[in-house]
Every structure is written in structure tokens, then in C-alpha cells.
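REQUEST
  id: r-88c1
  op: predict_structure
  target: Tyrosine recombinase XerD
  payload:
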Amino acid sequence: MKRKPAFGHAREVLAFLEMLQAERGASKNTLLAYGADLADLQAFLTRRKQGPLTADATALRAYLKSLDYVGMTPRTVARRLSVMRQFFRFLLAERLREDDPASTLDSPRLGRPLPKVLSREEVDRLIDAARARDAVDGGRMATLLEILYAAGLRVSELVSLPLSAVERDPSMLLVRGKGDKERLVPLSDPARLAIVAWLHMRRGQLAEGETSRFLFPSRGRTGHLTRQRFAQLLKEAALGAGIDPARVSPHVLRHAFASHLLAGGADLRSVQLMLGHADIATTQIYTHVLDEKLRSLVQEHHPLARRKRRPAG
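RESPONSE
  id: r-88c1
  status: 200
  body:
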């Protein structure tokens, strides 16, 4: 029996995803995520005997309520709503629809969760635990962590770093980020030393006559270390460092990079450029981390904060 094509392969969605890639430079991961979100929406609409060209606002509201019913977080619902809005605006702009049923939908209320951050001492323990593995595996993992903490890369940027990114200037790292935009990020001395050591070990890991354009090559389909494998190795390093693995992820190291820079006096604009944020408002979340830390320090150590209030009267 021939399977029906998934919604992600429907003509309207395919055109939408092609537009995202061509006009906005959307990454493969973004396209996959958008396609999956729209596939879930299509499955819901199909059960109501509607589709992208016939769905009305009532159906879309019912879909959002169904997400809440199955326990999705407000942030995830908001992301799904964002994808829907972009998709239906696209259909309207392409004159595939005469209206935009998503334009009247309300966004779920979001709290502002602060990013998880490791302390400097915990980052040091993590790198030491990675380095304690056997020479090659330890050298590779220590280099990955040193670069991640020194440059605040997204995990996809880290694992796919080309060899050329570190060959030109050892004091700077050339990173190709979202939207295929390049940025230069300064490297710390420990990161530079780790890279030099890894390049020496890396040559010994390639078979005779074998070459790779990636800094962290792999014989897998991608040709480089995968995000999933790196996340797995990171959990193992956390265990070795005596840190709860649930507190550690590639993104947590990126948070630590930004928060520690700001705590050390770096200006917000510089941190924005190094992180590759298009909007400085995204970077400002890290100032709230510092605010919360200062507030807790005052509450814990300031003598007036510890004084009990006298009862009124």
C-alpha cells in the first residue's frame, strides 16, 4: 500500500521551506523543525477535514488548545504559533489564500526562564575530566570544551568547524553561523594550546592518504562529529567531574561563556557579536542572570537583609 506523503512534503509547505532556505538562509535543522511542526498541524487539520488552504482561525485555536492539553510548555506552544504565523503569512503573500487565519491568534503568556549557568570552577572540572580520558579522546574532548567555552559557539557551529577556521590566525576563530553569516571570535590561550595539541593528534587519526576538511573529522555520514555524539560525551565528562549531567549541555557552556564575560566587565554589544545574535535583546537575558546572582548574594550575606523585621506596632 502506497503511503500518503507527509504534510512536510505538501506543495505549499515545500514552497514555504524553499523560501526560508533561499531568502532567509535557514539552516537544515531549522527546516527540519519547521517541517515537523507543520506536519503535526496538518495531522490535526486532517482529522477536522481541513487543510492549509481551508483552515480557519477556530481550527487553529483548537490546535493550540490541544497542545496545551497534552502538556506542552508555553514556550513550545509559542514556537509552534510562530511557525504557523509565518506559514499562513506566506500563503497570503503568495495569493494561495485570501486571508490569514493565524493573524488573530493570541500568544501564550511566557515566563522568562533564566539560562542555566555553570560556575568557572565547574567548567574547569569539566575540562579536566574530559582531558583525563585516553590521550586522543581526551585531547579531542578537551579541545571541543575549550573552544566552546572560549568562543561561545552553537553546538552545530562547533562540531562542523572546518580545519581552515583555525589555520589562518591562531588568535581568532572564523565561525560560519546562522544565515551563513561569518564572524570572528577571539580565542583564549588555553583554547589555542588545546587546538595545537589536537591538530598533532588529529593527523595520527586519519588513515594514510585520508583527508578531511573538518577540524573534528568522523567517518559517519556528515564527515564530522555529530551534535548527538558530542552531547553524549559531554554527559560522560559531567559524571567524571562530579556534576549532575542534567545541568550540563552544549548550550549551558554557551551560557557560561556569555555570563562569565559580562561578569568580568565585557560590554553587551561585544558579547552579542561573539555569540552571533542578530538582536541584542536576545543577549540581554544574560544581564538578568547577573542580576539574580547579585540579588541572592545580597540576601545571603548582607547584614540588613538577614535582619528580621520587627512586627508593626
